[in-house]
Structure formats: structure tokens, C-alpha cells
TrEMBL record, chains A, B, C, D:
<feature type="binding site">
    <location>
        <position position="65"/>
    </location>
    <ligand>
        <name>substrate</name>
    </ligand>
</feature>
<dbReference type="InterPro" id="IPR012338">
    <property type="entry name" value="Beta-lactam/transpept-like"/>
</dbReference>
<feature type="binding site">
    <location>
        <position position="169"/>
    </location>
    <ligand>
        <name>substrate</name>
    </ligand>
</feature>
<dbReference type="GO" id="GO:0006537">
    <property type="term" value="P:glutamate biosynthetic process"/>
</dbReference>
<feature type="binding site">
    <location>
        <position position="245"/>
    </location>
    <ligand>
        <name>substrate</name>
    </ligand>
</feature>
<keyword id="KW-0007">Acetylation</keyword>
<dbReference type="Pfam" id="PF04960">
    <property type="entry name" value="Glutaminase"/>
</dbReference>
<feature type="binding site">
    <location>
        <position position="193"/>
    </location>
    <ligand>
        <name>substrate</name>
    </ligand>
</feature>
<protein>
    <recommendedName>
        <fullName>Glutaminase</fullName>
        <ecNumber>3.5.1.2</ecNumber>
    </recommendedName>
</protein>
<dbReference type="GO" id="GO:0004359">
    <property type="term" value="F:glutaminase activity"/>
</dbReference>
<keyword id="KW-0378">Hydrolase</keyword>
<comment type="subunit">
    <text>Homotetramer.</text>
</comment>
<feature type="binding site">
    <location>
        <position position="263"/>
    </location>
    <ligand>
        <name>substrate</name>
    </ligand>
</feature>
<dbReference type="GO" id="GO:0006543">
    <property type="term" value="P:L-glutamine catabolic process"/>
</dbReference>
<feature type="binding site">
    <location>
        <position position="117"/>
    </location>
    <ligand>
        <name>substrate</name>
    </ligand>
</feature>
<dbReference type="InterPro" id="IPR015868">
    <property type="entry name" value="Glutaminase"/>
</dbReference>
<feature type="binding site">
    <location>
        <position position="162"/>
    </location>
    <ligand>
        <name>substrate</name>
    </ligand>
</feature>
Amino acid sequence: MTCQASNELEQLVLQARPYSSQGKLATYIPALEKANPSHLSVAIFHLDGTCTYAGDYKQRFSLQSISKVLSLAYVLARIGDEEVFQRVGMEPTGDPFNSIAKLETTKPSKPLNPMINAGALVVTSLIPGADLKEQWEDFLDFIRTLTGNPEIAYNKELQESEFSTSYLNRALCFFMKQHGIINGEVEKIMELYTKQCSIEMNCLELAQLGAVFANNGRNPVSGEQIIPVQIARICKTFMVTCGMYNASGEFAMKVGIPAKSGVSGGILGVIPNRCGIGVFSPALDEKGNSLAGWKLLEFMNEKYNFSIF
Amino acid sequence: MTCQASNELEQLVLQARPYSSQGKLATYIPALEKANPSHLSVAIFHLDGTCTYAGDYKQRFSLQSISKVLSLAYVLARIGDEEVFQRVGMEPTGDPFNSIAKLETTKPSKPLNPMINAGALVVTSLIPGADLKEQWEDFLDFIRTLTGNPEIAYNKELQESEFSTSYLNRALCFFMKQHGIINGEVEKIMELYTKQCSIEMNCLELAQLGAVFANNGRNPVSGEQIIPVQIARICKTFMVTCGMYNASGEFAMKVGIPAKSGVSGGILGVIPNRCGIGVFSPALDEKGNSLAGWKLLEFMNEKYNFSIF
Amino acid sequence: MTCQASNELEQLVLQARPYSSQGKLATYIPALEKANPSHLSVAIFHLDGTCTYAGDYKQRFSLQSISKVLSLAYVLARIGDEEVFQRVGMEPTGDPFNSIAKLETTKPSKPLNPMINAGALVVTSLIPGADLKEQWEDFLDFIRTLTGNPEIAYNKELQESEFSTSYLNRALCFFMKQHGIINGEVEKIMELYTKQCSIEMNCLELAQLGAVFANNGRNPVSGEQIIPVQIARICKTFMVTCGMYNASGEFAMKVGIPAKSGVSGGILGVIPNRCGIGVFSPALDEKGNSLAGWKLLEFMNEKYNFSIF
Amino acid sequence: MTCQASNELEQLVLQARPYSSQGKLATYIPALEKANPSHLSVAIFHLDGTCTYAGDYKQRFSLQSISKVLSLAYVLARIGDEEVFQRVGMEPTGDPFNSIAKLETTKPSKPLNPMINAGALVVTSLIPGADLKEQWEDFLDFIRTLTGNPEIAYNKELQESEFSTSYLNRALCFFMKQHGIINGEVEKIMELYTKQCSIEMNCLELAQLGAVFANNGRNPVSGEQIIPVQIARICKTFMVTCGMYNASGEFAMKVGIPAKSGVSGGILGVIPNRCGIGVFSPALDEKGNSLAGWKLLEFMNEKYNFSIF
């Protein structure tokens, strides 16, 4: 893989970066506050195997909620959609990503979709494996295969920080355990979940991973079918209807591509049959999406006409 | 326009029709209970101006919630997106289409999107015009232009039936009037709203109307730009994220096209840059979508690969 | 009836009046904003027929929510508790008095109790009578009998003001009409309801009315049983559990007597087997209770040990 | 203390016992299912130190939610009402005792009152002590003093059963820990909470304990002030407004006394300035209150006119 800096992309980065000053770093995970708020980097991985980038593409960041799409793809592939969708729904929600109220008022109390925390915790609880070690290593292998980088790892310090402060996610887990939606030990699920959130990569690796989804689950370079077509499609659908937290509808209107953001400031973009995109800029808007990252994708859409609508 | 019966479509109709026996006619609007539950018809209007159909394509049905997309397009075009989106949101919701609770718990209390009743009532309240007569006639002209049929009209008996029993919609209106989301007289808004819901057409006209959206707002035959590109895109986005009531997410996964259904059993489908689709089958599933209509669109997607994902 | 000014009460009034400066007049009913915010008056009507007062006891004020207890007593007496409690519950609620959300999330959707607006509207809808005129006149007779004043009337200007702006109450009515909790025409119910809210009296008449409840439904002077014992008890119970809006629990702890307040600034107090109390001071706290009125009742309880706990 | 069997009470027990056949044993705590569903016992402890009983008064049962009143009294006495009511409210709620949704929709997210699980967990988290051992032993001493029985203990098997299955209470704790309402380790709070719920006594001891509250916090035999007057009053108020789960309003109307029930089937009753009552019958109605126990209190009220209203 030979990746090249792109002047054209660099122009768009210059145009979008100023917006980062209107955003704020995530504060609820202490380790995320160390990021450089004016950072902005982007990479595009085309289905012919070429790629371009702008900004400091080497900067690594944690996946956070972006990992929800990946654990979903993995679990769907491993245990099948029927078992997964018995425990988590397919519908978008107007409630915040970390809300617990709907679990109580909806009967049965399964989470509305796998992109909100409750749903993602269910998905993580379904990762197969004889023990925590096997669950984690197999899942990590999957991520390494997707990115083509066997060195992908999680940030231990970050993971420990998240693990020790995730009271709300524990509340969600115990609530769902009470209602039989989640089985297994909550502390183990929390360890696995915080590990998947702490996986680090750069925008280039994120773009390459996105290209697999864009290519209907097939590695664009090797041609290997990593994710079944139908599962790649399911994931892209969730990215459109609920990938950008409570601004998913607005993003669909303004950019119109399957995307998933994380509170680290990363955004995974997927242009079906065209390319994968990785963006990173850690200053967030009030809904939790990367502010300059979102703007950059708007500008890219205006230039390249990415929208699927 | 020359439309032709299609054997291929007819085969799919035969395959889908049996599912109608698992559905039920809408009961909350008395006039809708008179429909023939085993009816199923479909039409496709391609962007080259040709069209095909299957089943009794002449059967007329009321738009009901399908009209929400049309009033939205109309109001956006007439008064601009800024004013509209000050009063109604852009986000999907996990609540039922007729829910009032979220209006109370969300601050400010504007409806989450224009595809739920509360949001559609806001949109209707924004239809410009000196009086009710002008509001209605101008809007009806818009529908006639979209379908190419100057005879399009509403079903008066149906409208009166809906008008006299729509207590819940009045509750929504008064609640929003209290909070300044809606201005004007509730009874007038209700008259306009029930009229738009009672507009009747057949699947062919619905498909032709869909082709305008598929063609980015341009009439595929005359080339006239009826709806601005950006507004057509906004409408298609809402159709994907919230067009099929509380099964929008599932529909996006299984069919993957912008669509809007109504409790009459109609479904408007839009395949960007390809064709518009009109489907009608009045027996509904428990979420309020045409059961055989949904199945037919699934079969059509399998055959023609319509999904945008 | 000979009523006398009381120096002792006057001392307590002097002590409580300064608190009125921390409160605000109700703004959502325009006519209420004309009140004198520093006004404070009180009367006690003992079961031996004597009464005492302090402050300008002649000042008249509208009942507003205080009327909810009276319409409840009236309807229970006229049509029986069974029919009433099929349509409205017996339980306190943590939601605001004008909330609609619980009606949607509770099945069946009957209001939790008759002291919140939804419940009070149900009660009003059950007032018997051949037509609106008879319904109103019979109910007004009941109030006149309770107070011993045949001149009691409603404030027409105030009623018209409330009638024309009560969008939220109309929303509640239409919502309940949809669910079969309320029958009849909403506009007629609204007229009856705003009339009952606009009934005017002074603190002396309010105290005398309270004495009937304190005396287990019997007029303390004439001995006439105006309200059945069991119904008087039901009303006193609701006054303790939900009489002071969302501060009912706090009031029960700090004062400990059955009481019902209205946004006009009136408070009806009932000391079982001892006396009735009428208080008026229009400046309200943020929960809608008369601020100086509440304080005065606290001071009275400290002095006279009124608490039933 | 000499307690005597009462023929009069025995007659009421005979009258109430048949109702137990309409109830069901609590199933969510396995150990409670072993109870004899037709058991019914009662004791009255008068303020002159005499007491009477009927049924098998020696039968011991666990306090469960009855302990919420006792931990509240204890914590109020030890750390003061100001600190307690910063973290838990004073208002009744229409939501179920184990609901979590209101914690999310209310800002700040403190529980509405100390009689629902969330509120009781807050109270338990405030029990002072250097460590869990001291917290527990001091609290248990308080219970022993209240009952006059230094042998009062908790049922270890029951406690362990509750501790291992209380997922919902852990969800409530973690949610409140996230919002800063609860500090300290959740597992320790859970241990303390399940211990207090598993304290066992018989109806006689429960009645004696109730007499302390009836006597304004003073031991009726020794005259010792165990609980300050004002705190005893606060507890009685909560018992009226929220002591009988979601049937508190109905109970107040039909019986009219401060009372607190537990899912073991025990009910603590307090008649101010008159007597304490202990009732036990484990078959519950659908709201979680002892069915025959409730009926017995209704019959007792009819005979002895206990109602405070």
C-alpha cells in the first residue's frame, strides 16, 4: 500500500480546521482530555487500493464508539443475526446514547439499536470465546485483519481509566442483566467493552477498514471476503440511521454517507462501492461528534458528491 | 406516458400477495376498513419516462402519512428550511408516530422530525396562504404537478370522517400551541391536515411522483425542476431514517431504499437516479406498514438490487 | 356568624408577610397578574361556629385549583365513587400538575389522581346535568351551600381569559377523549372547568367551607350533612397526598394538615375535628404554592400544633 | 411486657384470612417463596405498655421494605435532615418502587423519596461508621433498642440470596454513583442494604417498634426518647404518602393510617398517640402489599376508627 499526501485534501483540511476551536475535548474520560484540540487529519482509501491523506495522518486515537460498528459486524458474523436481534433492536432512537429510561418503558426491554451504549454492551456480551482472553484475542484479530495491521492494540492506560469510571455503563449492564437481556458477569463485559473502546489506530487504518465495508465486506486489496455482504450492509444502514449520535438525521441530510463517530474525535466514513474514510479531530460539538471532522466531511461531500441520497 | 403491464412484476406480486392475509386493515379511521384486504398493486416509473405495473393499478387509495413527505417538500420549497427546522427537528425517534410524551420531556418541545404526527402537523401549520382555501388549493396544485394529473383530489367522505375523530392530533396541536410551536387555529390546521391525508391517487401516480424525487426534484419527462435538489435530498433522507414508522431501521436493512408508508396501505418508494415506485396493499402489520407491500419491495430489491447501502 | 379580628393571628401574619416578597404572581393567566403581591389574609372557622381572621379578610380571590377538591366532593356525592375511580386514580404522582406524558405511558391511561389537571378535567366532565346551564347552576349551588353565602359567583372576565388561553388543558382533554376517559364536548368541559376555577370568595368563606370537611361533611353551624362522611375523608386524604402540587410531601412534613392550594394564591386548610382555614396571598413559590401562605400555615402549626402526624 | 391473646382481634383475623388465598408469595426473592401463604398474625402495642395479639404471633419474618423507614429514622437522627434531603426528595411518586427512569428525566437526578428503592439505597449509603462492620452493628443496635429485643438479627441465608440476585438495585446504585448522588462502593452498600432488608422479627416486636413512632419517638414503656419528635413525624408522613408502594393513596383513603409494607408480607402501622401495629401475612396483591394484612387493617379501622383523616 502506497499512500500519498493530497494537496486537494489539504485545502479542505485548512478550510475545516478553524471549526475545531468551537468544539471541546471530551471530559468524561480523563485520558481524552490530553489530546491536541486543533488536530485534524484525514485519509481516503479507494477500492482500487490507492489512498491519499492530509494532516498528520500518523496521529493515533482510540476508537471509542466507532468500535460499536466493528463489534456488531464481528458478532453478527460469528453467531448470526437471529440471535443478535433477539437481544437488540434495529430502530433509531431520539434518546441520548447513554440513556437508560427507554429500557424501562419499552417492553421487552431490549435496547433499540446496537449504536447506543446499552445495545453495544449487549453486542459485546455476545462476543464468543471460552474465556475473556480468547474473546478479546479473537476480536482483536478481526480488527487487525480489517486494517491490515497486525500491530493494532489497545491503550492500556486509557482502558483502565475508562474501566474504573464507567458507572453508567455498569448501571445499563445490571439493568439488562435483571431483565435477562445480558448474561455473564458484568465486570468481564466491562473489561471487554472498555478494551474495544480503547483500541487505537490512525486515520489511514480507519480508512482502510472503512473500505472493507464500502467494498461489501471484501478486502479491496486481497479480495478476501472478511465480512459477509449482508452484514456489511446491515452495518452501513445503522451508520446512516444512528451513527452520529443524536445528530444522525442532520448528518444524513448534510453529508449523506454511512458514518460512525466516537468521543475521541474519530469518524469512520463509508462511501458504498467507492472508498473508506478516516477522520480525526478531537474537539467535539455538544452532541459528541468531532466538529471539524463533521465540517471536513461536509466539504468533501460538496467536492466529491459522496451522498447516497 | 405509456404504461405497460409487466409479467415479471406480476410474478413478484403473486409471490407477495399471500402475506396480506397476515395483516389487518387500519381500524382507527372507519372509512379505511372498507378496503379489500387482499388487494396488491405496484407501479415503477423509470427516469426515462417509461413505466410498468402489476395488479389492479387503477385502484385509488388515500395518501395518509405518505402526504407528510409531500407537505414537507412543499413547505421547505415555499418558506425555506431555516424557518421549518426551527419548529421541527431532523432526528429519528424510537417513539410511536403519534406519541405526545417526548414533546413534554424534550426542551424545547419541538417534534423530533416531520414524519411523526406532531412534526407533520407543524409542517401543515406552515403551509402559506391568505386563507384556508388558498393554502389548500396551492398545495393541491403542487401535488397535481408532481403526479402530472390535474384531476387529483381528496376524498371528502374520508376527510370528514378523519376530521371528526382526530382527537389525538388535536391534543398534539393544542400541546404545541401552548408551547408556541404551532400558531393559528387548531381546527383550521386539522382541516388542512385531514385533507392532505385524504388525497387519493393510484399506484401509477404515486410512482410518477416518486420519480421526481428519484430524479433530484426534476420531472423526468418534462425536465422541469419542481423541487430544488437539496429539498428532494432532505426528503429522501427522512424517508430512510423515519419513513416506515417504528420499523424504519428494519426496512432500511432489509430493503434499503427511501420509502414512506401510510395507514391506507400505500408505500412510496424512491430509488435515487433510477425510478419511483408506488405500492398499494391495505392489510397492515402491527407497526402500521402494508404487509404485502413491504414484502413486495423486499422481493423487488432482491431481484433488482435497489438498496442504496 | 360573628367573626372577629384576632391579634394573635395578626402577629403571625406580620411574621409571614415578608416572605411574599420572595414569590411571584402567576403569569400564565393574565388576569391573575393584577393582584397585590404583598397581600396576606387568613381566617379560621372553628367547629363551634366561631371564627377569627387577620389581614384584609374581605379581599376576594379565585379558587383555581382549590376548586378541584370541591368538584371532586360534588361528583363523588352525585354519581358515586365507583364510577369516578374507574376514570381517575387514587395515587400521588411525582410529575407536574399539568403533565401529559404519564397519560401516555400508563396503561390504562387514566390520570393518577383528581388533583392534577388531567384528573380534575375528568371529574368536571362527570358533573351531572341535562345541559351546561344545569351542570353549572347545580354545582354553584353546592358551593353556595358549603360557604353559606348564596351570592358566591364566578369572575366572568377571568373565566373568559382562562377559557381563551387554556391550550394545555384542551390537549389533556383531547388526549383523554381519544382514550375514552372523557366523553362529551371538549369546549363544554373547558367552559365548565374555567368557570369552577374562576369562582371567587374571601378567606372567611374559604375557612367556613373548610370547616365542613373538618366536621366530617357536616355544616358546623346547622348540623346539616352536606357531604357524606366517607367522601369528606377521601377529599382530606387527597389534600394530604397531593394537595400542594409537587411540594405536597414537603408540606405534609412541615405543616402536616390536609390542604389544597391554587395559583391565585389561596390555600384551603382542614384540621380534622377542629377547624377550617382560609389563606390568601398571591405571590407564589416556584412550585405554584402561595409563599407567605405556606409560611403562615407553618407558623400556625408551630403555635397551635395542627399536624395530624 | 405481658402480651395477651385477644378474642376480638382473633375474630378480625378470621374475617381477613380468606383474602390471603387471592394473593401470591413474592417470587423475585427465592427465599420468600417458602412462606406459608395462609399465615396471618397481628399485634397491637398500646402506649400504656399493654399489648394484644392474634394468630401465631411468634412467626418471624424479614422486614424488607419496612426497613426503609427505620434506616431513614436512623440516618436522619445521626447526620441530620439537611444532608439527607440534599440527596433524596420528599415527594411521592406515581412510578413503581424500583423504577430508574425518573432518575434520568429529573434534574438533579436525586430520588423522589426514601421509600422507593433508589431513595432507600441513598439513605443506606449515608449510614455512618468507620467501616461496614461498624455501620451495620450500630444500625442493628438501633433496631434492637426500638424493639426492646437485644436478640434481633438478620437472616443470613436470605441476605445472601438477595445480595446475589439484586441486579436492579445495583443498576440504581451505579446510576446514582455516576451522578454523584451516591458515594462509596456499590458492593458494600448492597451488603448493608440486603442485611437491613433481611432483619427478622415477629409482629409483636414490629408493633412495639411502631409504638415508638406513635409515641412521638419516645419508648412508651421506659419513656426514653429514642428518635427526635420531628424525625418520628417525618417518618409517619412518608408512611402516609408513600408507605404502601403504588397503592399508598388508596390505602390512605381506605384505612387512613401511617403504614409501611414489605414484600415479605409484613406491615408496620402507626396510630399517632395511640398504638403501634404489626401485621404479617405473606400472600401479596399485585402491587406488593400483603393482601390479608391490608384487609385486616381495614377491618381494624372500621372497628377502632384509626384513621387520622
